[in-house]
Amino acid sequence: MDRNKPTAGEAYERRKVRLGVRMTLLYAVVYAGFVILNVFFPGIIQRSGLFGLNLALTYGLGLIILAVVLALLYNWLCGVPPTEGEES
Question: What pTM was computed for the model?
Answer without folding.
Answer: 0.78
